[in-house]
Amino acid sequence: YTIEVPRLIGDFNAYNILAAIAMVRALGISSDSIAQGCRDFSGVPGRLELYHLSNGACGIIDKAHNPSSFTAVLSVL
Could you tell me if residue 46 is left (phi over 0), alpha (psi between -120 and 50 degrees) or otherwise beta? Predict the structure, then answer.
């Protein structure tokens, strides 16, 4: 079977997206352009990346680098 995982999950991603939207709105970027960018964004390499393994299992890789990052990632998983 196939597991579909949203590209961006977790509160920390929602906070980052909202901050980015606020910044680009302040720079005058249109709502349509922002919406398209959000739809097209595929995530950041090394952050909650899903891998389908040859044995049928799934693995998730994240480059969490401090205790609060580990906590945020593990709370999502």
Answer: left
State how far Cα 74 lies from the chain centre. Answer: 14
Inform me whether the pLDDT recorded for 1 exceeds 60.
no
Helices (H), 27-77: 31-40, 67-76
- Only one residue has tokens 């579909």, namely 4
Buried/exposed 59-77: b ≥16 CB within 10 Å, e otherwise: eeebebeeeeeeebbeeee
d(CA 34, CA 21): 7
| The pLDDT of residue 56 is above 60 | yes
